[in-house]
Amino acid sequence: MSATLLIIHHTPSPFCQAMFEAVLAGATDPQIEGVEVVRRPALSVSESDMLAADGYLLGSPANLGYISGALKHAFDTTYYQILDATRGRPFGLYLHGNEGTEGAERAVDSITTGLGWTKAADYVTVSGKPGKEHLEACWELGGTLAAHLMG
Known about the structure:
Blueprint lengths: L2 E7 L4 H14 L7 E7 L5 H6 L2 E9 L2 E2 L1 H8 L2 H4 L7 E8 L4 H14 L2 E2 L4 E4 L4 H17 L3
Parallel strand pairs: 1-2, 1-3, 3-5, 5-6, 5-7
Antiparallel strand pairs: 3-4
InterPro entries: Flavoprotein-like_sf (IPR029039), FMN_Rdtase-like_dom (IPR005025)
GO molecular function, one term: oxidoreductase activity
Organism: Mycolicibacillus koreensis
């Protein structure tokens, strides 16, 4: 039986795209077996996507000190439907901001604490253009979350 890692992302910029691609590459590394990686844009993720997943990787720009409206919408439309069924599931987060990511981190902490999800890796936060070390950290984040689900 395979596990499912759901990547829920809002990727409106080239910098967010680079981070998303690095996370995806880490999560789908050939050394990771038995984990299906499903990716959904935050505006189209569904309750059934959330319920079918065994772990989550969240990606968002940090806009005006908060997570993107798209990622907030994903939680607004699924929160109560997934509340009891997803407790204890692991998650990770990557954020891109130009002015800082603290508010977005707090928002995700509040939402995931309410859901009872477990932080499985340090957050990856980048301000400005992601450098090689940032993209490597994103790759590690994807790999860590997928490996966590390998059973």
